Structures are given as structure tokens and as C-alpha cells.
């Protein structure tokens, strides 16, 4: 994605406030009252000096002190409401952006996640959205308050002394120069800094996910050194951002202080020549200091805004990423009862990230309703890729995949995938309860249905032995279960989903001999009347399949029954001799 103008990014960010116009209006009203109160304070000070202190009028002095206190109280109350609503808006906008980004990510195809590290995406959810929350909640509030204060102070300065105000205005263009020069660089380095933080998040996610492997190979010291190098990259990127932001603030403060000092000196000369009263000069300097403070605050906020621009750009990159897999504008409808007839016609496929490597080559395969098809072959033969094409995680490079004689690209993606139940080789268990994991594909299932699925998968007994039964939280990636238990929960999920087509990727690979036999019986019952494709690395699990499809290097090289392939195919015969002959 090309670099986007800061104004465009800020328009997008603050556009997120549109649904909360009433809240913004309340916050703005409180802001105006708050700023107005502090500005009016200068007039109270002027009156206290001229009419009370200089005029030696103690009653007037006492009266103005009470007025100043009342103004301060009003300003404080208004400040409370300003802070409350602006911080609430920051939290709300941050939450909305997270929801939008997450919802969009769920629509992206596996091709996106094949080239984007999960930890980096998580960083954009956490660090980037937290930064935006700070800018909208605090930065915007401070910037608007400072802007109103600056304009108000400038107007009141004009009433106090037009000549001194003109001198102050000469400094304004000078202040804008460092804002323009350093601000753009702060944004560039802020985005770079956020990218480095995302890299750290990705590395932490990866190493902690594979902590068993890290510790088994005593890789801790090497990982700590690698992590330290990444942290230093973060610091290096942050160093540039901090340097330019510090220069920005220092330049603005220096220009502001010098300008205010020179104006104060000029004002003192006017007082000495009786062209200006002491009270007017005091009020003028009060407003000048307020204006200078407002400019300094705005410069601070500009630094935050530039950081937020970098964060917004990274989030917009995610939101603008188009999925390569989309439903057609007018999808075709499947029959009311999908029987599970599948055909692959002259299918060729290359992964998007490696277009020069053909993973599937000229595959033709027709699968009838209720048929059990086993896919066998060496690793890298293309078996799992066929599953991904059937589920339309990727689109074929050429040829077509049909379900019920309809090209799956003409179907709504969700409708297509609703016809499949998948049991992957590495069972996926979510950090949720047993009940949630089993009912994942059918959230509205009754407890009786869940029980039946668990019993069919031979998972019911060990579930009942868990501390809280179905309500036991299984921990991240099912850490509380053994490999065989995870697989049985995954099989129970597929049984409960009750879909016409089953995709089994070596679904019994993690089971011991006793449990494998139980689950085989369960799967045999489950597969009745369903079209089933089984990826098998152990031939003993598929010798009774209706047809066995032998694949090698992305091609189908033989099809037939176990006995037919033993007689006709050398590769299959080699597998059989290695696995089935003791």
C-alpha cells in the first residue's frame, strides 16, 4: 500500500466518531465552556490589578478574588465533562476499529495468513489501536482545547493591546516551520517503530507457541539473543522518532518563550510611558502565556498525531487488504438436499506466493454421493492441497471444482463450506470449554446431541472424568488434553456438525491401538450415507475404501481398490510392503 497523506489518515480516524455525534457535541460544549472560563479568568485578574490592587480598593479586590474562584470552579466542572466524554470516545473508537479489523480478517483467505505473521497482526490490534485510543481520547481533547484557547487568547490580546498582539502574530509562522519540517519525519519514524514492535510481537508469539521445542533443544539463550536484537531494532527505530519529536517540541518552546519575553519587554516599555496600564499588561501577558502554552500543547499533540498516523496507516493496510476468495455478486443456489457429488476437472493449481511451482497438475476426479475415497501418496503429493481447493481456501489456477455439477466459484463461500466437516491431522482445540469445542460447527446443538456425538467419537468417558465435565476449559490449543483426546474431540465436532461431505486428514493418527479401533467404528457409522475423502498415511486405515487414489508430485497416477493397486501400481505396492507386511 502506498503512503497515505496524514490528512487522509486523520480524516479516516476521526470519521470513526460519526456514530457518536451527540457525545462529541457534549464534549465540545464542555470544552468551549472550560476554555472560556480560563480565558475569562484573565479579565478577572485585570480588574483585580487595576480596580483593586492599583486603586487600593480592598472591597473590589475581595470581590474579584471571589469572581476568579467562581470562574475556576465552573472551568473545573466543565473540564470533568470534557475529560469524561473525550476519553469515552477514545475507548469507543478503539473498540470499534478492533471489531472492524477482526471482522475483516476473518474474511481473508489463507493466502494472506501464509505471508503475514500472526504476532504482527496481534500487534496491530493491541499497540496500534491503544495508540489511537490515546490520540482520540486525550490528544484530540487537548488539541481542541488548546486551539480554542489560542483563538480566544488572541482575540482578548487584541482588546488589551493591538500593537503587542501584532508582534506576537509575527512569531506564529515561525512556529509553524518546525511543525511542518519535523512533524512529517515523526510520522515516518513512528510507523517504522510500530513495525519493529510488531516484529517483536510475532517472535514472542512464535517462540511461546512452540515452547516445548524451544526448551527441548535448549534454545533459550539463542532465542533470548535473537529477541534482544529485535528489541534493539525497536529502540533504534524509536531513537529517530524521539529525536525528531524532541526537536519539534524544543523548537516550539524556544520560539514561544523568546517571543513572549520580547513582547513582555515591549509591553513594559508601554507601561513606563503610560500607554498601557499595569492591569492590561498583566492580562495581556496572562493571555500570551496561555496562547504560548496552547501552541506548545498543540506541538505535543502533533507528535502524537504523527504516531497515530503511522498506526492508522498500518490498520488501514489491513482493512484495505482484499480477500482473494469472494462470493459472486449473484451466487447460485445449491439443491435443498446436497448429496455430495464432487468432480475435479482438469484442475491445476499453484500457490499465489510461488506461481512458478505447480502443486496440482491436470487432476480429474469424479466422486459419487456416499462414496469413500482415500488419497494416498508421499508427503508433498498434493493431498492436503486438494482439501483446500474443495473448501475454496484457494481458487484453482485452471480447470474447475464442482459440487452437485455446479462450479464452486459460483456458490456463496459460506454456503459451500457449510457442506463440509473437516477433521485435520493436527486437531484444532480452542481455549474454550469442551462443550464449546464440540458444538463449534453447530452452536445451537442440544446437550443430548452433544452427548451422542461425544459417545460416538469415544470421547464421552474421558470428558466425564475432567474436573468440570463439559464445562472444563481446555486451555490454549487444548493443552489440558492428550493428542488422542484432542483428536476425539475434533471427531465429535465433525459428527455433531452432520454435514454431507467429510474431509478426514489422517483422523486416527494420534490414537493408541485401543482408541483407534473405537474411533474407526465411530467413523464407519458416521460415514454411512456421506461422501468421504480420507487422507491416509497408514494404508491399514483405508484398505476398505471404495476407491483409493494414489497421488505423486501433484498428479493422480493410479486409482482402484487395494487389491487392484497392489497388482498394478509400483508406488502403492511399495507403501503396502513397508506398512502392511510384518
Q: Which tags fit this structure?
A:
alpha/beta; four-stranded antiparallel beta sheet; 582 residues; ABC transporter transmembrane region fold; six-stranded mixed beta sheet; 18 helices
Give a description of the structure:
- The protein is α/β, with parallel strands linked by helices and 582 residues long.
- It has a domain at 9-319: ABC transporter transmembrane region fold (Up-down Bundle), CATH 1.20.1560.
- It is built from 18 helices and ten strands.
- It has helices at 6-15, 21-54, 58-105, 110-115, 118-160, 162-209, 211-216, 220-272, 278-319, 383-390, 413-417, 434-438, 447-456, 460-465, 483-497, 513-527, 562-568, 570-579; strands at 342-349, 360-367, 372-376, 398-403, 406-407, 420-423, 501-505, 531-535, 547-552, 555-560.
- It has a six-stranded mixed beta sheet, with helices on both faces. A four-stranded antiparallel beta sheet has the order 2-1-4-5, covered by helices on one side.
- A hairpin with a 2-residue loop joins β4 and β5 (406-407).
- It starts with 5 loop residues before the first helix and ends with a helix.
